[in-house]
Amino acid sequence: METRYSTLASWSLAIVKTLEKSGVDGEALMKQAEMDIQSVKENPEARIPIEKMTHLWTLAEEATQNPAFGLSVSDNVNPLHFRALGMLMMTSNSIAETFEKVVKYYSLISNTGLVELERTPELIGFKILPLEGVEISTLAIDAFFASVVVLCEQVLHSRAFVDSVEFIKSEPKNKEPWNAFFESQVRFGSAINCLWMKRDILEAHSAFGDSRMALYSESVIQDYLENMQQGSWRDRVYQAIHAAFTHGEPSLSEIAAQLNIGERSLSRRLKEESTSFRSLLAEKRKELAGFYLRNSDLSVTEVAFKLGFSDVSNFNRACQNWFGCSPSAYRNA
């Protein structure tokens, strides 16, 4: 059965190149992970099921015996590995604006988690929150944060913009590679994966800002995402709900508009595939409820309202149906 979760194929090329520099046959590991390097080279904008990519990361760590292997992958990542999003990043008016675009279009890179920005008076936090039940390698998180730092450094010529980094994963036996790479405080065993950066530096105007190029790159991204979603209407709606839920519960009209189809037509297409918008919304709400209860510090009340419940009692009843227990009991299990 085809997975609903995938990542951009071009990232595997950076992994293979890093493996080869370490004296490891990266192409052979790709074959073990049931991936074909020639196909990826011919179509780097293809999608790879997250299970295969996670398997490749696991094989890479085993072959190199390097828990910090993900950090070294950033040496072989360039804006083109992000495809059009990379160009958009390099032509935005500020680094802060870049991160807003990354959050908006993160599904181009991967649809395996939730991505959010958090602003404080002094900092901007770039968060990657994995979804419960979707196995993402911790090396992939390392590689993404490290690559973001390297790309920003190309514009800022310094890593002084990094304030601190948080990782959900447990503290490794030797955390020096992470401290040395990020040149800042690194905390493990946190509730979130978050790259905290200094807001004043990120919001400064970029000398590389090019509004016309940025607009063109954004149109390319939108075309890509539209083509990426040419599968079943069930999967297209599910992914659209996934992306929209980071900003609040979406409506049928919002999702229909996003997919450029009328509400009645969309409902009819979903019915033909033996599902409905309401059932897909409920499925995603359950998935996110499990994630927030197990992996966030949000109170039960906050989770309930974040997922569109009018009151906590309705959320309690939903959790009883989903998990056979109350939200608090599920969180403490």
Automatic annotation (TrEMBL):
Cited Gene3D superfamilies: Homeodomain-like (1.10.10.60)
Domain annotation HTH araC/xylS-type: ranges: 235-333
UniProt signal peptide: none
Keyword annotations of the record: DNA-binding, Transcription, Transcription regulation
InterPro entries: AraC-type_N (IPR032687), Homeodomain-like_sf (IPR009057), HTH_AraC (IPR018060), Tscrpt_reg_AraC-type_HTH (IPR020449)
KW Transcription regulation (keyword) present: yes
Coiled-coil spans in chain: none
Domain of life assignment: Bacteria
PROSITE patterns attached to this UniProt entry: HTH_ARAC_FAMILY_2
Name of the protein this chain belongs to: AraC family transcriptional regulator
Organism: Litoribrevibacter euphylliae
